[in-house]
Amino acid sequence: MKLTKRIISGNEAIAIGAYKGNATFASGYPGTPSSEILDFFKEFDGVVAQWASNEKAGFEAALGASLAGARSFATMKHVGLNVAADPLMTSAYTGINAGFVVVCADDPGMHSSQNEQDNRYYARFAKIPLIEPSDSFEAIGFMQYAFIVSEQFDLPVLFRSTTRISHSLGVVQYDPRTLDNKKELKLDKNFQKYVMIPGNAIRRHKELLEKFENLKQFSNETPINKIENGSLNVGIIANGISYAYAKEILPDAHFFKVGFSYPMPIEKIKEFAKNLDKVIVVEELEPFMEEELKIAGLNIEGKKYFPQDGEFSLDIVEDGLCRAGFIKEKKSTVVFESVELPKRPPALCPGCPHRPVFDILHSHKNIFITGDIGCYTLGSLPPLSAMHTTVCMGASLSMGVGSSKIEKNEKIVSVIGDSTFFHTGIQPLIDAYVNKANMTIIILDNRITAMTGGQPDPSSGFNLNSKPFEPVNIAKFAKAIGIERVFEVDQYDYEATKEIIDREIETEGLSVIIALRPCVLMPKKIKDTPLVVTDKCIGCKRCLRIACPSIDFKNNVAIIDETTCTGCEVCQKVCPVEGAIVVKEGK
Amino acid sequence: MDIKSVLFVGVGGDGIITVSNVVAEACMLAGFDVKKSEIHGMSQRGGSVSASVRFGKKVYSPTDKLGDVKFMIATEKIEALRWAQYLSKEAVVIINDRIVPIINQIIDEDDINKKIEMLNVNKILNRRFLDDAKKLGNEKVANTVMLGVMSTFLPIENRFFLEAIDVIVPSKIKDINKKAFELGIDIAKEL
C-alpha cells in the first residue's frame, strides 16, 4: 500500500472520501462554500456526478440512486438544505438502501451568503446522525465512515462542513486506489418502507424513534468522539474548526473532540467531565452542543464566553478562553493599529453584461426592484443602487408577484439570473402569469452559474461532464407558459436594451425580458480591443456611475485601464460627449 | 508551539490563490505540517482578498492571529495596510508598489505611501514588481518575483519552491515562473 501525500482543500477531501467510501453517484446544486465537491468527484472512474436544478432535486436524485443500490451523496450550501428540507425530513422515515450522505457546507461569517444559519439543527429536526470533520485529513476518513453509519442505521447522514473546512487546505495521506468494501445491493422495492402514505409513515416514525435510541448509545462508542488528555485540569468540548482554534491556543487542556455531534455522546462526556475542575463548550454559531448537554443535566457553559454570531478566529477563541478563566491573558496583541482606508467592496467585473441593465434601471425613479442571488446582487451597491430586495433563491419573482398586487404607484421589476431562474424561478413565473401580475421580469441569462465559479446550468448547453445538449430556451419556455410579452435583448446594444426595458416598465401587465449576453469570464474569458479616453472628456463623471473597475478618475478626467478593459463599450454608450471615449486604435 | 505564517493579501483576481498554493506545497515538501485558508465567492469579484499559509511541526488553525504574522506578501498597497493588524514587530513585508483603483473613490497615494512608511516592521520592501515582471516578458509573474524575495527569509530551501512551482503552475508558464523566482532571490541580495 503506497500512500499519496498531498495538501488539499476540505472540498477535495470530501470528494476523495466519498470515492474511497465507494460512492458512485452524486448530485447537488452549486453554492459557496460547497461548489467544488462535485467538480472533484466527477474526475473519478466509474462514478456518476451531475448538477441538479436545485438542492431538493439533487437530494432526491441521490436518494433515488441509493434506493437503486448505489452509495450516493448530495452537496449543497447551508441555505440549500432549506430547499431540500422536504425530502430530508421524510427520508429519515423511509431510510435508505445503499449508504446516503447529505453534505452541507455552512458559511459562518457570511463570506458569500445571505445568512449564517447553523445547519446542525437539521440533524436534530430530522433525528439523523451528524458528522463534522475538523480538517481535510479528517474529511476523507469521516466521509468514508458516514456511508458505513448510514447503512448501519438505515438513515441518511448529515455531513457538515463550514467555509474554513471546505476552503482550507491541509496535508493528507491516503491510498488513492483502495476502496472500502460494500455490499452488492439491488434496487429495493419495498412498499412499506418507501411509500410514505400515513399507514406506512406512522410505523416508520416509530422505527425512527427506536433507531434514535440506538444512535444515542452509538455516539458514546464511536471512535470519532474522542478524548485527548492534557496536563491542565480543565476540559474543552469542541467540534469542527472550533476544535482547531482551541487546540492551538491551549494544547495542554483536556479535549473532548466531537466528530459525531448528533445525538451527542452524553455518557462519555459525563465521564470526561467527572474529574476536571471546569469544562466548557467551544462551538461556532449556535449553542447546539451546549443545549444538548444542558438538557441532559450537565452544567457546562459555552455561549457565556463565546459569541453566538459571526465566524470564530484564534483571537475570538483566545478571548473566550480568557473569559472562562482557562488562560490569564492573550499571548500576542495588535502592534499596528488599523488606519483609516477606503473600503474595497466587490464589484461587477469589467465587461459584465449585467452592468447596462442596472444602469438603465437606476434611471427609473418609480420602480420597485426585487432582486435575487448571484453576481448581479452587486447591482444593489452604489453607484448602481438598482435593487431593493435580496432574500433567497427565486424570491425576486415570487416577492414581485405579491408586491405587484398591493403597490399601485410603482411598477414592480424583478431581476433574476439564469441559474437562479431554473433553481426556483420557474414556479413564480407561472404564478405571475396565472395571477395576472403587473410586473416586468428581467432574466439575466449569461449562460452560466457565475458567482460560484462557473458551473454549467440548463442554459449553458453543456453539463458537469462537458456533454453538450441543446440549451433550454427561456423565451420559448415563457411563451409556452402563455406569457405574450416576451423579448430578448443583447445588453451590449445599450440603446435597444434601454428602449425595451423603458417601454415594458411603462406597459401595464406582465412582460419578460431575457438579456442574452454571456458572462465575460466563463466559460471563456472575453477580451476585445480596449477603449481610451480622449481630450474631449469634460469630467462629468457619467461613466463612473456604471461602476466599472476599469474606469478611474484623475486630474478631473476619466481614465480607462487598458489591461483590464474588455472593450464592451458600455461607458462609451452612456458618455454624453461624442468622441470622448473611443476604441483604441492600432490593435 | 512554533507556527510560522505567510499572509498573502491583495485584490480579487491578483493571483493570490496560485502563489499561496506554491508556498503551501513547498512547506509540505520541506516536511512541515501545513494549513492554508482562502476565501472564494463574493469577495473574489474585485474585493479585498487574503490567503494564509501556516506551517510548523503541527498546525491546527488555517487562519492567523492578530499581531502574530511574521511574513506578508501584498500585491497592492492599500491592502497591505488593511491587513497590517496581523503583523508582528518582527515581520518581513514585501509589497508590490501599485494601487488598484476603487470604484467611486479618489485615492490619495501620497497618504497611502506615508502610512506604509509608518509600518515599523523588521523589514519592508515596497517595490514596483510589475516592472520586474515586465522585463521578464509577463506581468503576471510579479507575484513569483515577490515570492523569490520572500523565500530568502523563510526556513525552506529553494529546491522545494522550484519543485512546488512544478506541481502547481501550468506547464506552459513553469519556466518563466522559475526565472521570476530566481530574479526575486537576486533582488533580495540587494536588500
Helix and strand layout, with pairings?
The complex is a heterodimer of chains A (587) and B (191).
Chain A: E1 4-9, H1 10-20, E2 25-28, H2 36-41, E3 48-51, H3 55-67, E4 72-77, H4 78-83, H5 85-94, E5 100-106, H6 120-126, E6 130-131, H7 136-153, E7 157-162, H8 163-166, E8 168-174, H9 191-194, H10 198-221, E9 225-228, E10 234-239, H11 240-249, E11 254-258, E12 260-262, H12 266-273, E13 278-282, H13 288-295, H14 314-323, H15 354-362, E14 367-370, H16 395-406, E15 411-417, H17 418-434, E16 439-444, H18 474-481, E17 485-489, H19 494-506, E18 511-515, E19 531-533, E20 551-554, E21 557-560, H20 570-574, E22 581-583
Parallel strand pairs in A: 2-3, 2-4, 4-5, 5-7, 6-7, 10-11, 10-13, 14-15, 15-16, 16-18, 17-18
Antiparallel strand pairs in A: 1-8, 6-12, 9-11, 19-22, 20-21
Helix pairs in contact in A: 1-7, 3-5, 10-12, 11-14, 15-19, 16-17
Chain B: E1 4-11, H1 16-29, E2 33-38, E3 48-56, E4 69-74, H2 77-82, E5 87-96, H3 109-117, E6 123-127, H4 129-136, H5 142-151, H6 158-168, H7 174-189
Parallel strand pairs in B: 1-4, 4-5, 5-6
Antiparallel strand pairs in B: 1-3, 2-3
Helix pairs in contact in B: 1-6, 4-5, 5-7
Please provide a written account of the structure:
The complex is a heterodimer of chains A (587) and B (191). With 587 residues, chain A is α/β, with parallel strands linked by helices. Chain A folds into 4 domains: 4-221, Thiamin diphosphate (ThDP)-binding fold, Pyr/PP domains (Rossmann fold); 226-323, Rossmann fold, CATH 3.40.50.920; 355-516, Rossmann fold, CATH 3.40.50; 531-583, Alpha-Beta Plaits, CATH 3.30.70. Chain A is 35% helix and 18% strand. Chain A is built from 20 helices and 22 strands. Chain A starts with a strand and ends with a strand. Chain B has 191 residues and is of the alpha/beta class. Chain B has a single domain, classed as Pyruvate-ferredoxin Oxidoreductase, domain 3. Helix content of chain B is 39%, strand content 23%. Chain B has a 6-stranded mixed β-sheet with strand order 2-3-1-4-5-6. In chain B, helix 3 links the parallel strand 5 and strand 6 (123-127). The longest helix of chain B is centred in the last third of the chain and has 16 residues, at 174-189. Classes of the chains: A alpha/beta (587), B alpha/beta (191). At the A-B interface, strand 1, strand 8, helix 11 and helix 14 of A face helix 1, strand 2, helix 2 and strand 5 of B.
